[in-house]
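User: Please predict the structure of the protein below. I'd like the answer in structure-token form so I can feed it into my own downstream comparison script.

Assistant: Understood. Taking the following sequence of 373 residues as input:
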Amino acid sequence: ANMKRDALFLSLLLLGVLIQANAKLMYVGSWTGIHIFDKQQDGRLVKINKADVGSSGFLAISADGKNLYATGQGDTYVCYGIQTDGNLIRYNSQSGCASGQECWTTHVSVAANKKYIFGANYKDGSYVAFSLWDNGALNQRTDSVTPGTGDNGDPYKNRQAGPHAHMITPTPGGKFVVGVDLGSDKVWIWRFNFTSGKFGNPSYQSVPLGSGSRHIAFHPSGKFAYVVNEIKSTISAFYFDPQMGRFKDLQGISSLPGSLQGNRDISAGEIRVHPTGRFLYVTNRNAGSDNVGAFSISNNGQLSPIQFYPSGGGSPRGMNFCPKGKFLYVANENPIDGKSLRAFAINQNDGSLSFLEDYSIGEGATDVEFSPL
């Protein structure tokens, strides 16, 4: 009996070690492949490997930590299996474009039940769904919809002559799927049919004309949603009803420090809400901005700027927290002195950032995702 008990204890211990190991896995997208890191307890990174798989601009990891999905080369969505040591095995890929034309696969997310992935295609403004096999591999494209038309709201950058799908993600609780459309200044809201794999008829929430809505981040309570607007470098805050899939205006605020506000050559990039729900972070790119803005979130969802921090490279495109929210990692598209990945420690009391370390991956970085386990 003792031997059995010891064996059980040992296997539980090993399971704990494996889960611990995976909790530290960090994946960085780039234009030539996926860089794999082991995050140490002090927030510093140790490089494990690079998967030379070609352009992998945006990544998503399934809730069970077994699969990684990427926007891939040649307008594809790609599925990988995540090994216990963190390395990737390529399962398969599918064309993102229903039209047969160029569509520019730009963003990918996974349904919580791991039955589907969702993709946003920038160039043609389409949103797609793919069913998945039991091992997470892509089965088939079940739907492709293009609800937007573009609103020509931005004469300066002229980026709104047509729809430009920039992000798609399930809402908290998973009842709806939302798509952010930069060309149409809209967030589209669908009920998704998990039996047929089809998007329902969309409703929408607009942001101010010419804003260029790029990405959305939900508050962990599900009660608030924040849209970062690329063209105007603003944040649109909303009340959100996760049961009804409805947005209601709450606040509009610049993503920039006062000295840079109104500079139309700056483009806001990524937006993330801290796991505690108390802080929000946004990246600003180009025209000498290249910073991370930290904001506090009040109990009623309102944002107030805390501070702005140099991103450690040019054009910070993506960023993410480690699962516990102690550290923030920023992916810069243009390296400075060879470094394109910057790590910050997050002050858990006030949300302020302190510089931790810069890393070189030999090229620009585009997105950061952690294994959730």
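That's the full token string. Helices lie at 2-23.
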